[in-house]
């Protein structure tokens, strides 16, 4: 074992990420929007030091919907925070279009990427339209009427009605709150959207509708999406590729079908347990066979 001056074990490890059949793990440089290279995340110091990521590699390709799965506490949300530039790598790098995420100026961040936080609430003291307009208003560069018009466009884009504009967050359903949060994330038309458990807390119907909306947004706006989800229906409905976090790194990345067949205890428990098999069933039905050729596994959410 080799320990460097930071106290990190630098012993050569196995390839940090395995891609499954079809070379799904590597892509030409131009194709990559987010590159995570040999990332270490260590919280605390000395005896308190706690390693979340260790030599983690992952590329996010332009235009894809990449889903991160992993057990609770494996560092999925922290990984999104790295992409946002809110957490600095202890070692290694996270780059967006070749620039270190943590070095990008916070001004204009909403134009680079939108984020739907895991426990993300709206500002409870602001009504719907002011919540949506918030990132644009913060720029302080546009007349208020223009900001309001832009927010109204986004309100309707996420399937809400003009009469919802003046409602307070406490008067909205869970599904409507998610839609407002999505409109706020997209107000500056960012090319990259990060979603942390986007359908958590929604009932099956609300979850299906929100998946449909995300698919529409992805298609219409040409977004690149990085999503964390525990929900297999959401995963199969949306994912172009899936990356699995375990053992402090990405152990495998590939299409949902490829990843399901990768041998690892977490994957077997997550995808092939009772809940996982139930979610997989419609994909394996003969009628789904043709649809499975589409860019997405193409099952309705
Ligand atoms: N700022 C921080 N300081 C110290 N520890 C942190 C910090 N942020 C996260 N952690 C720890 O890092 C680990 C990974 O956290 P993270 O929130 O990324 O997990 P997760 O994979 O998103 O889990 P879940 O599925 O439950 O949301 C956890 O043990 C968490 O307590
Ligand atoms: Mg999390």
In short:
Helix content is 35%, strand content 22%. The protein is an alpha/beta fold and 301 residues long.
What does this protein look like?
The chain has one domain (28-282): Rossmann fold (3-Layer(aba) Sandwich), CATH 3.40.50. It is 35% helix and 22% strand. Helix 3 packs across helix 4 (144-157). It is α/β, with parallel strands linked by helices and 301 residues long. Residues 76-77, 118, 196 line the site of magnesium ion.
Sketch the topology as an H/E string, one letter per element.
Answer: EEEEHEEHEHHHEHEHEEHHHH
How many helices? The count is 11
Helix content: 25-40%
Question: Strand fraction band?
Answer: 15-25%
The top level CATH class name: Alpha Beta
Termini, distance in Å? 47 Å
GO molecular function, one term: ATP binding
Protein name: ATP-binding cassette domain-containing protein
Organism: Corticibacter populi
Domain ABC transporter: 34-272
What key phrases describe this protein's structure?
binds adenosine-5'-triphosphate; 11 strands; alpha/beta; nucleotide-binding; seven-stranded mixed β-sheet; ATP hydrolysis activity; ATP-binding cassette domain-containing protein; membrane; globular; four-stranded antiparallel β-sheet; 301 residues; binds magnesium ion; Rossmann fold; single chain
């Amino acid at each position: 074992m080799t320990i460097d001056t930071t106290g990190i074990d630098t012993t050569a490890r196995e390839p940090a990420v395995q891609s499954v059949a079809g070379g799904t793990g590597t892509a030409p440089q131009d194709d990559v929007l987010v590159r995570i290279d040999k990332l270490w995340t260590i919280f605390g110091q000395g005896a308190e030091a706690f390693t979340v990521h260790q030599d983690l590699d992952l590329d996010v390709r332009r235009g894809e919907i990449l889903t991160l799965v992993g057990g609770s506490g494996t560092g999925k949300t922290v990984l999104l925070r790295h992409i946002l530039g809110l957490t600095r790598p202890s070692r290694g790098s996270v780059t967006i279009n070749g620039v270190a995420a943590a070095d990008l100026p916070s001004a204009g961040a909403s134009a680079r990427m939108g984020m739907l936080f895991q426990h993300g609430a709206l500002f409870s003291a602001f009504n719907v339209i002011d919540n949506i307009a918030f990132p644009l208003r913060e720029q302080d560069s546009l007349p208020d009427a223009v900001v309001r018009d832009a927010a109204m466009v986004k309100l309707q884009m996420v399937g809400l009605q003009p009469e919802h504009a003046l409602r307070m967050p406490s008067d909205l359903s869970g599904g409507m709150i998610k839609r407002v949060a999505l409109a706020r994330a997209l107000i500056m038309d960012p090319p990259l959207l990060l979603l942390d458990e986007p359908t958590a807390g929604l009932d099956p119907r609300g979850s299906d509708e929100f998946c449909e909306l995300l698919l529409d947004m992805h298609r219409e706006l040409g977004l690149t999406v990085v999503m964390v989800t525990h929900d297999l229906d959401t995963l199969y409905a949306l994912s172009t590729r899936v990356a699995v976090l375990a053992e402090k790194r990405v152990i495998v990345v590939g299409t949902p079908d490829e990843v399901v067949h990768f041998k690892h205890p977490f994957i077997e428990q997550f995808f092939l347990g009772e809940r996982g098999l139930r979610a997989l069933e419609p994909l394996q039905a003969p009628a789904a066979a043709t649809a499975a050729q589409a860019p997405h596994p193409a099952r309705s959410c």
